[in-house]
Amino acid sequence: MPIETIENTWITLADGRRLAARLWLPDTSPAPAILEYLPYRKRDGTASRDETTHTVFAAAGYACIRVDIAGTGDSEGQFDDEYSEQELRDGEEVLAWIAAQDWCDGNVGMIGISWGGFNGLQLSFRQPPALKAVVSVASTVDRYADDIHFMGGCLLSDNVNWGGQMFAYLTRPADPDLRVDWREDWLARLQTVPFSSVDWLRHQTRDSYWKHGSVCEDWSAIQTPVLAITGWADAYVNAPSTLAANLTVPTKAIIGPWEHRYPHISKLGPGDFHSEVIGWFDRWLKGQENGVEDLPAYRTYLQEHFNPTPKNSPRHGRWIAETNWPSPNVIEQVWNLAPGGFSQEPAGGTVTVASPCNVGAESGYFCAGMRIDNELAGDQASDDALSVCFDSAPLQAPLELLGRAKLKFQFSVDRPVAQLVARLCDVSPDGVSQRISYRSLNLCHYRSHETPEALQPGEIYEAEIALNECAHHLREGHVLRLALSTSYWPIVWPGPNSAEVTLCLQNCALCLPVREVTHEIQASEPGPAQAYPVLAVEQLRPPSAQSERCVTDDGQVVLETFDDYGKTRDPYHDLIVGSDVRMHYGIHPDDPATANYKTEWNFTFEREDWHVAISTECRMTCDAQNFYLYRKLRATEGADEIEVLTKEWSETVPRGLL
């Protein structure tokens, strides 16, 4: 179907601010519409990806619209925070505006991955009349429990990493071809860019800040059908099955082998994302009786052991399906912990977990898919060697896991603040350890994420860790390993002091979601990715990536990464954009207070005689009492790099119980 592309149009909000939008309109009018609402710049940031999605959806008879959130890209106004009340209120206005256009028939769906997956659910929660269906990819239902800031009450290093990335992103100017006031607006952005990593770090418990936008607060509020998708290499694996289990509207979950990318552009085995999306919207926006509501509640890729490597490569496994979720095919098996392994009956005695701070060297990048390569979890054997492991006997028959394993344990500590990290691994006969799932818990949160409490050394407590969702087939002869550690760097920021956690084995058990079926139903798996249009950018500098580990003279274990995202010219409007990022993670194995992080982002924008360059730096260090955050911005203009602004910020945030 022929489509018309409108490079930019303006959506004027009630308060006069204008949001910038790009349109792909089908030849048939009016048509249902699909909205993607992001802060990542439609003009250049997501332009290549948008070409692979919205052109296909428009050709299928949908009016597609990509809108820049206020204060980002070419949109007017000031950005304040992720998923803020302003963002969601503006989103409601955008939905109403779309529904009122003569090219729209009044029915609107939302699609998005990560940020767009979040706000699609969040806007559905608010029940705007025009929104009729959602496709949410790599999202969360609980902003405190399952985002990039905290995990089990532990601080994730990605809180500062993501804050640094957003800092760099939010300093980028609007396009002078669209905004005559671009320079005035740019200077305002540079001066007022939020110190997001600090703002997030000040909310260390599950308070009202995190409850805002967490749709798990009221499942019944979502009244639009939801298709929830993610991939096992992604950080966001818990939402699809949770939505399928709790929403009362038609809901389907799909989890493939993918990383943090739309499935059709995954580097781990692309899937037919387009057909799934079009089928969903055909049913709920066009009213076609195509049977998508009769698909299995949960379709997933059951992974198997392969030689894990940080490099992007296809996964091993097969597609399975569960008609209903939760499924009667999944039964909980209780494996009691015993010294070095498991037992049928509770065992006596204790085991002490006290790990060096560098456990986690093979953990991979927290959210694989954000870097170019070298970001997946590797062979866990070296991390296992520094952890306390409980190994099964070699399996006498295959074992399939589907769901969230739970570790229930009784413990004492020698410090008021301590962490425990649990990993499930599939260990091959030759000793290669593949991570199946993991999860951390700040033990001060043993009772509640809302009201944690300092621990009393020597006192006995009970806690539970629900590991992240998994789907895994262990072969006969393989070993199921539970590895426990008191650190997991660089994913988890360490506690203030090295701590010992002592487990009382008589009350420690691993509860496994074991899947047993006598007859597999038709999996209805997504097929291979179909052909899709590719934006014909002119590549002026190719992308590249590297990662290096070393030990410094003072004993710090250091990981340094570099991703050059290249430099390209857009064929539609001749904008030339280049970017790269360096990251540094360091820690001494014997001292958690030495944990340190640094990132540097560089952006360049050019067109004819217009040149802009932005460099940002973010750092975070700590001691036993505080976190110390620093950032610096330098912006220049012109080919001779005349300085526009250089500014530095420093903040100290008390650790509380982190």
Automatic annotation (TrEMBL):
> What is the top-level taxon of the source organism?
Bacteria
Q: Does the keyword Hydrolase apply?
A: yes
**Stored Pfam families:** Peptidase_S15, PepX_C
UniProt-listed SUPFAM superfamilies? alpha/beta-Hydrolases (SSF53474), Galactose-binding domain-like (SSF49785)
InterPro entries according to UniProt: AB_hydrolase_fold, CocE/Ser_esterase, Galactose-bd-like_sf, Xaa-Pro-like_dom, Xaa-Pro_dipept_C, Xaa-Pro_dipeptidyl-ppase/CocE
GO molecular function: any one?
A: dipeptidyl-peptidase activity
Query: Which keywords are on file for this protein?
Result: Hydrolase
Q: Where is the Xaa-Pro dipeptidyl-peptidase C-terminal domain positioned along the sequence?
A: 278-534
Q: Which PANTHER family match?
A: COCE_NOND FAMILY, PUTATIVE (AFU_ORTHOLOGUE AFUA_7G00600)-RELATED (PTHR43056:SF10), PEPTIDASE S9 PROLYL OLIGOPEPTIDASE (PTHR43056)
Q: What is this protein called?
A: Xaa-Pro dipeptidyl-peptidase C-terminal domain-containing protein
